[in-house]
Specification:
Elements: H1 2-36, H2 38-52, H3 57-86, H4 90-97, H5 100-115, H6 119-142, H7 146-173, H8 200-226, H9 229-247, H10 250-260, H11 266-291, H12 295-299, H13 310-332, H14 339-356, H15 360-388
Helix pairs in contact: 1-4, 1-6, 1-7, 1-8, 1-9, 2-3, 2-5, 2-8, 3-4, 3-5, 4-7, 5-6, 5-7, 6-7, 8-9, 8-13, 8-14, 9-11, 9-13, 10-11, 10-13, 11-13, 11-15, 13-15, 14-15
Length: 398
């Protein structure tokens, strides 16, 4: 929660300090940074699953560093592409991509804590990481560093957070491997598996997370193509409500994921997760509708035209949160082919937005409609598969 609040504060202050003319560049670069976090999100999920199943921490950390090196190489190649597509400077594009390798290591350490059911230590790391990323960025913005300066400052904070997270994880787990899920305490752990943890499971999880993150962020990229600078900034501010509704119930997936990875508890955990996420989503939409009149007070009068649509932005995030829960369960039981539905939804959304959307209303309406259809299909498939085809007890992973 601390990390999420810090992130929302950064975007609100950036909207105010950069102005309605300059905020869309910052928001678009943040969307790119979110997409760069996809390998990190996949890393946490895969590491947590492998720890639940008894993989050794040494093997897990070796895999983390291999993946971080791959991510660094890809980030270097993507810098000029991002600069051209978003019409930003190379320095700004590099700032958005620069933190990606450190995020992989940070998320891997979080996965070790999550898979070992060390949720108190995990909460500490999450709060610390959110603060370390946002505080330097806020200082950079306050001193006129602009979008690129803020993102570079945030990248430095993430590197520091990754170092601290590693120390916390090692001090929490000690020199022994964490217990398997459901064991209750370290004393009941079984002998850790000595097999090598390969990169391939991470790549499979990456394409699932990539589909989700792309679907949740692509509108922030398209908006700079189809709207003018002022409306693009207004739309970008509205997506703060989307992000709040999307990330608010993040703890639900974090806590239930180890149970999703256990064959005996998977089906029940999936049902519980989707039910809780749906309830929280309804509350988030109602909250956005009630709080809408306050938006211009925090961000400025220039953003008043979107206050009546904030509930739609929140609905978008709430739907995506349910989709995230369903896709997490697919990663937990290694049914990652289901991500194809999300990729199709992404293609449909981009096509419709580029062809027909020319206003804020039509953009957010398209995003909500496509997300709703995609989420419904994925959730139905996941629930049916969990009920009729439970995950195997000892799958061959590598």
């Amino acid at each position: 929660m601390t990390a999420n609040v810090a992130g929302y504060l950064l975007q609100l202050l950036a909207a105010s300090w950069l102005g309605v003319e300059g905020y869309s560049e910052f928001a678009s670069l943040l969307a790119v940074q979110l997409l760069c976090a996809v390998p990190a999100l996949a890393m946490q999920n895969v590491v947590a699953r492998e720890v639940v199943r008894g993989a050794s921490l040494r093997a897990v950390r070796a895999m983390m560093w291999r993946c971080a090196a791959l991510v660094a190489a890809v980030a270097v190649v993507l810098i000029p592409v991002v600069a051209v597509v978003l019409d930003v400077g190379v320095w700004a594009a590099a700032a958005a991509l620069g933190a990606a390798p450190a995020l992989v290591i940070l998320s891997g350490e979080q996965g070790i804590l999550q898979g070992g059911n060390h949720f108190r230590a995990l909460a500490t790391v999450l709060a610390m990481a959110g603060t370390a990323r946002v505080a330097p960025a806020l200082l950079a913005l306050a001193f006129g560093g602009g979008a690129a300066g803020a993102l570079w400052a945030g990248a430095g904070g993430i590197v520091g957070a990754a170092i601290v997270a590693g120390r916390i994880a090692r001090s929490t787990t000690g020199s022994v491997d964490p217990p398997t899920a459901g064991s209750g305490d370290a004393g009941s752990s079984r002998e850790p598996m000595t097999k090598t943890v390969g990169v391939l499971p991470v790549l499979r999880a990456v394409q699932v997370q990539a589909a989700l993150m792309a679907l949740s962020s692509v509108d922030l990229i398209v908006v700079r193509i189809v709207l003018d600078e002022v409306d693009a900034s207004r739309y970008s501010l509205g997506t703060i409500a989307t992000k709040i509704a999307f990330w608010l119930p993040q703890a639900v997936g974090v806590v239930l994921y180890p149970r999703m990875a256990q064959p005996t508890h998977s089906a029940r955990a999936i049902r519980d997760a989707l039910s809780v996420l749906s309830v929280i989503g309804v509350v988030a939409v109602l909250g956005a509708a009630l709080a809408a009149p306050l938006a211009p007070l925090f961000a400025g009068a220039d953003y008043a035209p979107i206050q009546g649509m904030l509930w739609l932005f929140a609905l978008h995030g709430a739907i995506l949160a349910v989709l995230q829960g369903a896709l997490l369960s697919a990663i937990a039981v290694e049914r990652t082919a289901l991500a194809a539905v999300t990729w199709i939804g992404l293609a449909v959304e981009v096509t419709l937005m580029l062809a027909f959307a020319r206003t804020i209303e039509s953009l957010i309406g398209t995003a909500v409609s496509v997300a709703a259809v995609t989420t419904t299909i994925v959730a139905v498939v996941v629930l049916r598969a969990a009920r009729t085809h439970p995950a195997p007890a000892d799958p061959v992973l590598h």
